[in-house]
From TrEMBL:
<protein>
    <recommendedName>
        <fullName>asparaginase</fullName>
        <ecNumber>3.5.1.1</ecNumber>
    </recommendedName>
</protein>
<dbReference type="InterPro" id="IPR006034">
    <property type="entry name" value="Asparaginase/glutaminase-like"/>
</dbReference>
<keyword id="KW-0378">Hydrolase</keyword>
<dbReference type="InterPro" id="IPR020827">
    <property type="entry name" value="Asparaginase/glutaminase_AS1"/>
</dbReference>
<feature type="active site">
    <location>
        <position position="19"/>
    </location>
</feature>
<dbReference type="InterPro" id="IPR004550">
    <property type="entry name" value="AsnASE_II"/>
</dbReference>
<comment type="similarity">
    <text>Belongs to the asparaginase 1 family.</text>
</comment>
<feature type="domain" description="Asparaginase/glutaminase C-terminal">
    <location>
        <begin position="202"/>
        <end position="312"/>
    </location>
</feature>
<dbReference type="Pfam" id="PF00710">
    <property type="entry name" value="Asparaginase"/>
</dbReference>
<dbReference type="InterPro" id="IPR037152">
    <property type="entry name" value="L-asparaginase_N_sf"/>
</dbReference>
<dbReference type="InterPro" id="IPR036152">
    <property type="entry name" value="Asp/glu_Ase-like_sf"/>
</dbReference>
<dbReference type="InterPro" id="IPR027473">
    <property type="entry name" value="L-asparaginase_C"/>
</dbReference>
<feature type="domain" description="L-asparaginase N-terminal">
    <location>
        <begin position="10"/>
        <end position="181"/>
    </location>
</feature>
<dbReference type="InterPro" id="IPR027474">
    <property type="entry name" value="L-asparaginase_N"/>
</dbReference>
<dbReference type="InterPro" id="IPR040919">
    <property type="entry name" value="Asparaginase_C"/>
</dbReference>
<dbReference type="Pfam" id="PF17763">
    <property type="entry name" value="Asparaginase_C"/>
</dbReference>
Length: 314
């Protein structure tokens, strides 16, 4: 068969809103105004005729700061429905940057398929004279069709960077290279879980700082948190009072994951003392490795929903 006779690739693009779908109103405020077809079709038309079939589905139309776990559950259900069709080669998800790393992590933890799911978005709205969304979307579609993207989980394609989602973080509020990663060069990806709904699994993130006490830990437990993510200092340490509150959570069978507030580097259980990482690990606190708090919250929620031990996912 000649190249001209090759069957076209099949992509499904799922749109959820975000800056990539925004235009500016009279006050200069950004609102997600573009529907899925208006966003995707001009980019799909860049590909040579007959080389790719693109289906567009609009899943949501929100600023990603307003994205809920219920909407993430809906997105996951749609992705699994699409991938039940063996003729689909890949999926692209357009998403706001504020919570992209969280939604993408929620897809990755349940993504048990060789075919890629690629997230992208933009830092500038669609009506900006230097809008970055069109090129980001084009490159995401190219990656989603590439054989090298198969079997490595969910990806973020943004600002010419191609990043596995685990450890990825929005590192700049406005720069076109909006995402970086704290993951090692060859990250280990845990075995994906059977898909679960996360909407009813409350996991709270609690930051530590010099002198922080247990007030917010106790408040989260009182509010019904089923898991806690602590954003610790250094390599994963907290003060004495906060350590005591974490101990109360462990005693109540509420799983606790320790992250670091430091931009680069892993969590290490090195220090002793009441709030040292080694002491906390001995009590049962799980180190998050390279993953920062927003993604750790998603992973812990998935562990709780599936009945998996959190340690197996970090």
């Amino acid at each position: 068969m000649s190249d001209t006779d090759a069957a076209p690739a099949r992509l499904v693009v799922l749109t959820t809103g975000g800056t990539i779908a925004c235009t500016s109103d009279r006050q200069g405020h950004l609102l997600p105004a573009l529907d899925g077809e208006s966003l995707v079709r001009p980019i799909a038309d860049r590909f040579p005729a007959g080389s790719v079939e693109v289906e567009v589905r609009e899943i949501a139309h929100v600023d990603s700061a307003s994205m809920t776990l219920a909407e993430v559950d809906e997105l996951n259900a749609v992705i699994h429905e699409i991938l039940a069709d063996p003729g689909v080669d890949g999926i692209v998800v357009t998403h706001g940057t504020d919570s992209m790393e969280e939604t993408a992590m929620a897809v990755d933890v349940f993504h048990d398929d060789q075919r890629p799911v690629v997230f992208t978005g933009s830092q500038k709205p669609s009506d900006h004279p230097e809008a970055d969304g069109p090129n980001n979307l084009f490159e995401a579609m190219v990656v989603a069709m590439d054989a090298s993207a198969r079997g490595i989980g969910v990806l973020i394609v943004f600002g010419h960077a191609v990043l596995p989602v685990r450890g990825a973080v929005k590192w700049h509020t406005t720069d076109e290279l909006g995402f970086a990663t704290n993951a090692p060069e060859d990250p280990v990806r845990p075995t994906p879980l059977p898909v679960q709904e996360l909407a009813d699994v409350r996991v709270d993130i609690i930051p530590a700082h010099a002198g922080s006490d247990g007030t917010f830990v106790d408040a989260a437990l009182e509010a019904g948190a089923k898991g806690l993510v602590i954003e610790g200092m250094g390599s994963g340490n907290v003060g004495t009072a906060m350590a005591a509150a974490i101990g109360r959570a462990i005693d109540a069978d509420v799983p606790v994951v320790m992250c670091t507030r430091v931009p680069r580097g892993d969590v290490h259980g090195t220090y002793g003392g009441a709030g040292g990482g080694a002491t906390l690990a001995a009590r049962g606190v799980v180190g998050a490795g390279c993953v920062h708090a927003p993604q750790a919250r998603i992973i812990l929620a998935a562990a709780i929903a599936s009945g998996a031990h959190p340690q197996t996912l970090f």
